[in-house]
């Protein structure tokens, strides 16, 4: 399940859509350089470059988004959560930070927080397919938890619940209950 949720992968498209008016070619190059580092698995270098560039452009949402992605990839989820949260507060019209924040919450098994955050992404952009897919994954995961609990509470419900639970587990490749 944790791999099923998707971080926003179309980073360059997002950068183009949210380009700041008056952002210079140097800033666009910085965005591309950091994105390339992230895509090549060099999260630490991407994070260093993003933080350097943010000293010059502290309000640049693209740089801040890239920094949060680098924090995520560098194994710093708490810093990434703080960075994505700040972006959602300052730029509530952008759905991508909400989506990525929700993925981090899901990785920490904070399912209700992930669900609520994805719903915010969809309020910002009802047509955002990645957030909609991730929300479906959250609902499926919550359903599997509810089905498991139902079987624990009432053994007689196993006949009707087991096929539903098996279908969800097959969907996420989780196999047997843990």
Automatic annotation (TrEMBL):
Keyword set, alphabetical order: Signal, TPR repeat
Pfam families: TPR_19 (PF14559)
Signal peptide bounds: 1-28
TPR repeats: 95-128
Domain of life: Bacteria
Protein name from the UniProt record: TPR repeat-containing protein
């Amino acid at each position: 399940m944790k791999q099923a949720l998707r971080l926003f992968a179309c980073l360059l498209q997002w950068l183009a859509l949210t380009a700041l008016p008056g952002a210079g070619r140097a800033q666009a190059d910085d965005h591309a350089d950091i994105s390339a580092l992230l895509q090549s698995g060099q999260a630490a270098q991407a994070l260093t470059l993003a933080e350097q560039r943010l000293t010059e452009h502290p309000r640049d949402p693209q740089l801040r988004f890239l920094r949060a992605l680098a924090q995520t990839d560098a194994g710093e989820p708490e810093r990434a959560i703080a960075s994505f949260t700040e972006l959602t507060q300052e730029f509530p019209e952008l759905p991508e930070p909400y989506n990525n924040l929700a993925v981090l919450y899901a990785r920490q098994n904070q399912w209700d927080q992930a669900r609520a955050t994805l719903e915010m992404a969809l309020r910002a952009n009802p047509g955002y397919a990645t957030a909609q897919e991730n929300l479906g994954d959250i609902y499926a995961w919550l359903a599997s938890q509810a089905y498991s609990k139902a079987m624990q509470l009432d053994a007689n419900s196993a006949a009707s619940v087991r096929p539903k639970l098996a279908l969800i587990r097959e969907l996420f490749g989780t196999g047997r209950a843990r």
